[in-house]
Amino acid sequence: MSVFSESEKEAIVAEVRTKYQCKSDIEFKSYVEVIAGLRIINKILGREWYQRAAEGIEDFDDNSLQAHPIRYYLKMDEPKKIVRLLNFANFLRNLYGKCNLDEKIKEFTRKQKHAPITTESFNKLYTELKIASHFIENGFKVEFLKETKSKKTPDLKITANDGCALIECKRKKDDDEILVESLTNSILEANSQLEDSEIPAIIFVDIPISDDFQVKSKTREVSWDEIFLQLKTVHYVLVSGEWQAVIPGRVRTRSYMYSFENKTSELKLSPSIEDMVRDIKPTPLKSSLLMD
Questions:
Q1: Which of the 8 DSSP states describes residue 54?
Q2: Average pLDDT of span 144-164
């Protein structure tokens, strides 16, 4: 299912051509992508959620993670932020009509109806859409699981012809220093959502990285074996990171995903899911948000 009709695509191109005095073809295409991305976010998350970016303009600094994500990321003079917004739109487009995305978005926006919409909460959703999009693009069925008060609920369920798996997502804040201890705590916190499961599980941790990225420790190095012994149903831990690299004329996302197998897990992934997870690589983002 396409997010845009042909007439909507033509209208976006016409709007950029009419409203913006682009000095080059690259600049023109960049504006088309930004407008298309904003239209996708507006259409799927809803006009009310989108327009609340203009509320409380004095309450938060636009560079604070407490600001509305549209205000935080929509800065044409900071292309690294713009690319994060476009990546988010790309995930939405990849999932649109292919899973219960509408239920996930409805739950997400409902929670924020009478509360501040922050970039922090947006980034958590970004992480869930990122891994969901990855599995959809690799041919698996994805279901966002609804939270319940009576039972701990993972974020996602992945289904293949030969089995299924649960996924719990965690995201480290963009301004966090990544410490071994902090990463371990995130994994163990995610495990608390999965330890009673009868279905094999995956923990997905999204971390901020850069060209000089390092995982540090305040005390001592913690081995995977120590962590894995506590993960009874988790067969794999995935650690992902991305950063925006500036290249001549544009900014692109560079991504990494690493998988770590827990051989002590009492539950194992089905062969087709394990094959994909074992050699996991980031799915390249589509070149244009107007192309299906």
A1: G
A2: 91
